[in-house]
UniProtKB/TrEMBL annotation:
Cofactor(s) named in the record: Zn(2+)
Keywords on record: Lyase, Metal-binding, Queuosine biosynthesis, Zinc
GO BP term, example: tRNA queuosine(34) biosynthetic process
Active site: C34, H81, E125
Pathway stated in the Swiss-Prot or TrEMBL entry: Purine metabolism; 7-cyano-7-deazaguanine biosynthesis
Cofactor note text: Binds 1 zinc ion per subunit.
Catalyzed reactions: 7,8-dihydroneopterin 3'-triphosphate + H2O = 6-carboxy-5,6,7,8-tetrahydropterin + triphosphate + acetaldehyde + 2 H(+)
Keyword Transferase in record: no
Protein EC: 4.-.-.-
Stated name of the protein: 6-carboxy-5,6,7,8-tetrahydropterin synthase
One of the record's GO molecular function terms: metal ion binding
Taxonomic lineage from the root: Bacteria, Pseudomonadati, Bacteroidota, Flavobacteriia, Flavobacteriales
């Protein structure tokens, strides 16, 4: 019997959407106001979902405290109050779109979980814009 355990978290961060190998005009055409060279910020809301079998001894799929600690070390400590383009190594050469941020979060968290657990990341960039990634 598989059950999904989810935990919400949040971080705020600044970013700029652009490609270093495009002109300012091309970046402006594609990314518009998100290409502001002075950056802009979002209050990101995160839902981390872990799916797996219930351990018959503990009744847990995963201890929520363990999940909380992994989110803190891999996401909050790394991204919160940071400029993603300038301060987070994963985005030195990767555009920090919501899609790419979700994939980076997945790739940081997956190795920290038991291999038999499935992970899904839902990331809200704004209250109306969100993406989901589950490694597929
Ligand atoms: N596919 C994607 N499209 C866009 C992304 C993204 O990550 N993936 N990101 C942005 C910008 O980051 C932009 O800052 C989004 O903010 P905004 O346009 O203000 O968001 P809303 O549309 O939700 O705001 P409204 O209040 O509805 O105007 C753009 N596109
Ligand atoms: Zn943005």
């Amino acid at each position: 019997m598989k059950v999904t355990v989810s935990r919400k978290a949040h971080f705020n961060a600044a970013h700029r959407l652009y490609r270093k190998d495009w002109s300012f005009e091309k970046n402006d055409e594609i990314f518009g106001k998100c290409n502001n060279p002075n950056f802009h910020g979002h209050n990101y809301e995160l839902i981390v979902s872990v799916n797996g079998e219930i351990d018959q001894e503990t009744g847990y799929v995963i201890d929520m405290k363990v999940l909380k600690d992994i989110i803190k070390s891999e996401v909050e400590d790394a991204f919160d109050h940071k400029n993603l383009n300038l301060e987070v190594p994963e985005f030195q050469d990767l555009n920090p779109t919501a899609e790419n941020i979700a994939v980076v979060i997945y790739n940081k968290m997956k190795p920290k979980l038991d291999a038999n657990l499935d992970l899904e990341i839902t990331l809200y960039e704004t209250p109306r814009n969100f993406v989901t990634y589950s490694g597929k």
